[in-house]
Write a structure and sequence with these properties.
CATH class of the largest domain: Mainly Beta
Distance between the termini: 35 Å
Strand order of the largest sheet: 1-5-6-7-3-4-2
Number of helices: 2
CATH architecture of the largest domain: Beta Barrel
Largest sheet: 7 strands, mixed
Oligomer: single chain
Structural class: mainly beta
Number of domains: 2
Order of helices and strands: EEHEEHEEEEEEEEEE
Radius of gyration: 27 Å
């Protein structure tokens, strides 16, 4: 049975002015959805700052509230929107759970052991650090441990190599690579060949200009989190 933490939530009014007023009082507007009728709530900023860290990923929270529909519900902190400049939380999504139904979550992969291939000049490359799974809420693991001790040079571990606890269903692709041991290339890169001297153009003729290709524009990043 996973440990649960209490999380205080209270009803709030909707609207931008109401949300701004809450933030000035160090209260964060949020919403509860899932196994509950949607509820507009607010939480203490200090609680969000404390729990919005990797340490509390997939933590189950028991909601404490004067709102009868929310009080006693078990929920996950699904997402926290932050101000891109101040990095302060501005909105929180809570996902209320039905403890009898599975939920999809991403769990940290914890690498253990020292690959035997390191002694042969190999280098451990961790390709993926999270695994998406489906599991009952009370059975959500804190992490997935992967032992890489037996990896030699050129060996790798994929999702379909993992032995997971009963009741844990993997959603990530079976062929997804978790870790691989590559051979370190110690050879120095060959020196670039000297470029041949450019021919002097004949008198009265201009040297042909090299085709200049404009660098492709990078995709615009999405706008920062919108304040609710």
């Amino acid at each position: 049975m996973k440990q649960k933490y209490d999380l205080a939530v209270e009803a709030r009014s909707i609207g931008k002015s109401s949300c701004r007023a809450l933030r000035k009082e160090r209260k964060i507007p949020g919403i509860i959805y899932g196994a509950i009728k949607n509820q507009n709530v607010f939480l203490n900023e200090s609680d969000i700052l404390k729990y919005n860290t990797r340490k509390y990923d997939n933590t189950l929270f028991t909601l404490k509230s004067s709102v009868s529909e929310a009080n006693g519900k078990i929920a996950l902190i699904k997402s926290v929107d932050v101000n891109p400049l101040s990095r302060k939380p501005v909105h929180v999504d809570l996902y209320a759970l039905d403890l009898t139904k599975t939920v999809r979550v991403s769990v940290e992969i914890k690498i253990e052991g020292k690959p035997i291939g390191l002694a042969d000049g190999g280098l451990l490359n961790i390709v993926n650090r999270e695994l998406e799974i489906e599991v009952l809420p009370n059975d959500i693991p804190d992490n997935i441990t992967v032992d890489v001790s037996n990896l030699g040079v050129g060996d790798s571990i994929h999702v379909n190599d993992l032995q997971l606890a009963k009741g844990v269903k993997v959603i990530s692709a079976p062929e997804l690579t978790i870790a691989v041991v590559n051979l370190i290339d110690e050879e120095a890169a060959p020196q670039a060949a000297a470029a041949p001297a450019a021919a002097t153009p004949a008198a009265g003729k201009a040297a042909p200009a090299k085709d200049a290709k404009a660098a492709p524009a990078k995709d615009a990043k999405p706008a920062g989190d919108k304040k609710k």
